[in-house]
Amino acid sequence: MLDVPPQNLVTISAPLGGFVKYTGLLQGMKVKKGQVVVVMEHPDYIQIQQDYLESKSQLEYLELEYKRQQDLSAENVNAMKALQQSKSNYVSTKAKVEGLKAKLKLININSGDIEAGDIKSTISIAAPISGFVTQVNINIGMHVNPTDVMIKIVDTEHLHAEAQVFEKDIAKLIIGQTVRIRLSNETKERLAKVYLIGKEITSERTVRVHCHLSDEDPSLIPGMYFSAIIETNKNLETVLPNEAVVNFNGTYFVFITNDMASHRYEMIEITKGISEDGYTVVNLPESAQHKSIVVNGTYALLGILKNKED
């Protein structure tokens, strides 16, 4: 099955939840990296910004107070307890400010804008990659939780082919072998290379083989099924179309002729090898060398021959 690497498939969720204010996406649409795909709103967004401003203001005061207590302590004016309390208040508030700042970054709000007085009631979520929308599970006004999948985007620029190879054939595979792929809706073959060989056997007694396509094609869709032939080794053989070889009483034959116009044919016994992709490996005797070999209608000729003998 055609698939994409994990980094090319993105699931978009709302980091802190909220209500969907805007989305204009439909399945199949193309989006660019950085494009706004969803606008969310929630009172919590305003509260976080408010908490940040208050904590930031308090931190500035506590920092000055802590420095004042340090100066007093250096002159042995104040008690050590006052210095420690001042330090504790300053450190805890600083941690709170940093935590709120991280939350704001999570929902794509710039803390600098808030400090300048720009408090937002909405947040924008952008596409982290370029690609095509495969799922849209939201509508305007819908409330979503942080665990809800809102949108899925897939980048089909780098599709790979995941083949399932039977356990008994794994020993024949090495990285770099040529793979001939044929999609279920196509007649032409596509080429790929074995890139990774899995190390786990599935319940179906197969192993996943990760293949990279030689020619990228963005029009292909993840999830498409294909059949594949992996070329484990190459040998030069004499082959004929399957239709050229006939089986008569458990023995294999071909028909040869010196002159096609004469309509005179001779049936010659051969040794048959493996058959693959419509062709059969044959070992021709000397008498068949450099002769014309019938490749169509051979069983009709065999039928005529048998009727003649009868």
Euclidean distance between termini CA atoms: 53 Å
Reading off the top of the CATH hierarchy, the class of the largest domain is best stated as Mainly Beta
- In CATH, the homologous superfamily of the largest domain goes by the name RNA polymerase II/Efflux pump adaptor protein, barrel-sandwich hybrid domain
Write the CATH fold name of the largest domain: OB fold (Dihydrolipoamide Acetyltransferase, E2P)
| Order of SSEs | EEEEEHHHEEEEEEEEEEEEEEEEH
Question: Ranges with pLDDT <50 over ≥5 residues?
Answer: none
Mean pLDDT, rounded to whole units? 89
Number of strands: 21
Specify the overall morphology: elongated
Helix percent band: 10-25%
Strand content: 25-35%
Structural class: alpha+beta
The count of domains is: 3
- From the 3D coordinates, which CATH architecture of the largest domain would you assign? Beta Barrel
Q: Looking across the biggest beta sheet, what order are the strands in? A: 1-10-13-12-11-14
What's the number of helices? 4
Question: Quick gist of this model?
Answer:
With 310 residues, the chain is an alpha+beta fold.
Keywords:
21 strands; 3 domains; 310 residues; elongated; OB fold (Dihydrolipoamide Acetyltransferase, E2P); conserved putative lor/sdh protein from methanococcus maripaludis s2 fold; Elongation Factor Tu (Ef-tu), domain 3; six-stranded antiparallel β-sheet; 34% strand; alpha+beta; four-stranded antiparallel β-sheet
